[in-house]
Amino acid sequence: MGKRAIREAGRGVTLLEVIVSVAILAMVSLLIYGAFDGMAKGKRGVEQINQRYREGRLAIRRLAREIPSAFLSAHQPYNQSLIVRETLFVGENTTPADRLDFTSFSHRRVLRDSHESDQNEVSYFGSRDPDVPGKVDLARRESSLIDLEADRGGSVQVLAEDIDLFDLEYLDPLSGLWQERWDSTSATGQLGRLPLQVKVTLVLRGGPSGQTIPFVARIALAMQSPLTFALPQ
Questions:
Q1: Buried-most residue among 36, 107, 149, 192 (CB within 10 A)?
Q2: Which of the four pLDDT bands, split at 50, 70 and 90, describes residue 109?
Q3: Burial (0-12, 13-18, 19+ Cβ within 10 Å), 181
Q4: Is there a domain that residue 194 lies in?
Q5: Is 22 inside any structural domain?
Q6: Distance of CA 126 to CAs 36, 70, 221, Å?
Q7: What pTM, to 2 d.p., does this model score?
Q8: Number of domain units in the chain
């Protein structure tokens, strides 16, 4: 009995046993790796979706801060040749992103002692990504200098990437109806007037399960008539 136990204790591991052990270890390792890899992919997916929601909320927040500060001014020199600036509120209906150009009191100075006021030109529009076919981003343009070209100059930044829709509607305080376009510079539009509210619909791609992420906001404007405080009554 004792000799048999000694012979069994001294017997080595066969090659087949080694192969089976390695195979089992590889299968367990593969399962563990797959589990951790799935968790990492799920985490990255959740983070990307959260980033998309955050991007949309920040864009709506920026719109909600700047649109209420829109203004028109009736202060112009009598000599038309001396006019060097124009205040306006112009909304165009385009696909997939509308365009809005307006003047506002929403500018914030970031440089100390800079010669800037709170007045500015602001534009929101769709910008196609030159590197990705079919991709449209929501862009914002701002110029601290109001001139006669409300759609040019200043700096441009992307507020939200890969949008599916950017739609604007304007509530006319005279008719009480929502309009798809607004033009405070045209006699056939809404000459010298601002809308009562602006309805913003922003839809981003890249939501859960490939769905879109919609954001809707109604933004009230502080004034509807041009500034005339320096004009003779």
A1: 107
A2: confident
A3: middle
A4: yes
A5: no
A6: 39, 20, 23
A7: 0.79
A8: 1
